[in-house]
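Please review the protein record below. Tell me whether the encoded fold seems credible here:
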Amino acid sequence: MGNDNDPRSANTNGAERDPDTIDFGYERVARGDKKQRVAAVFDSVADNYDIMNDLMSMGVHRAWKHFTLELAAVREGDRVLDLAGGTGDLAAGFSRRVGDSGRVLLSDINGAMLANGRDRLMDRGIVANVDYCLANAEKLPFADNSFDCVTIGFGLRNVTDKPAALAEMARVTAPGGRALVLEFSKPQVPGLDRLYDLYSFSVLPWLGKQVANDEASYRYLAESIRMHPDQNTLADMMRDAGFSRCGYHNLTGGIVAVHRGYKA
């Protein structure tokens, strides 16, 4: 889909980019401003987040999350940190798997999203083994080696400093533990990218306008996907952050990928 402002058609190797700016969708903004801009997006979408996820993915996001939970392979008694946990889908699944002797910490940088997640889990009776923390993934308030498993689902692309967030994930993962990144990625099926662009830049903003009265936020979310590193680049970033045996699984033709790495 043509877009004169689409930076994918320009030189994206960083040589011509101002190091004091960062992408906010297709815009370049001051690094210090991105966090506030992203916060405004999620303040706006928080109350409609779940219904929009179902509509935008036609329910397939549930299968993506179930696959992530299976791939995480947590056991009873494990300690799990779910970053950018939003309304708690992954945290709910982890809660069932770690049992009464385990703990799940649902964390998000956005207070509105975290409150929605807490209320949603409490409404489902998931209380005993889940805690909550308002935290920035780039600077986590947890001790080294605190968790057996660390996840971030559909949140890494909104982080200003992705290498810092991945390094923090590695720091708080215990030796022998693993980290998983569930995120939109780059379609791998020939021709799928064009269909996906058409859907993302036509249908998604329309849904945002009709359901959430917020076209701009959903246009940003579509743009942020295109600016996110591709599968191999993200795997390399995880290795640079300190994880080993890094690999990924493409889902829905590569529209989504689950990356996993281990801490030695």
Summary: The longest strand covers residues 173-184. The chain has one domain: 15-262. The domain at 15-262 is CATH 3.40.50.150 (Rossmann fold). The radius of gyration is 18 Å.
